[in-house]
Prior knowledge:
Low-confidence stretches: none
Radius of gyration: 15 Å
Helix content: over 70%
Structural class: mainly alpha
Oligomer: single chain
Number of strands: 0
Shape: elongated
Amino acid sequence: MxxxxxxxxxxxxxxxxxxxxxxTMYGLQLGLTEVNPVAVRAMELFGYAGLGLLxxxxxxxxxxxxxxxxxxxxxxxxVGLAAPSIVAVCINTALVLYVM
Length: 100
C-alpha cells in the first residue's frame, strides 16, 4: 500500500518526466539538438513518441524495481527516477530561455 509520501514521490516522477519530454520537444523546435544517443535513435524510429516510449520504459523498469525492493528501501526508486529528469528539466529550461 502506498502512503501519501510515496504517492507524492511518484507524482514528482511523472511530472518531471512529462516536463522533460515537453521541454525537449520545444527545444528541438527552437533548433536545439538532443545529445542523448538513445533518445536520438528513438526519435529517428518513432518521432517525438519515441521520447514518451523511453520514459514509459524507464517508469516500467522503475515500478518493477520498486515492487522487488524491500519496503524500507522502496522510496529510493522514485527518487532515482525523478532526479535525472529534474536535472534535465533545469537544463532544458535554461537552454530554451537562452535561445528565446
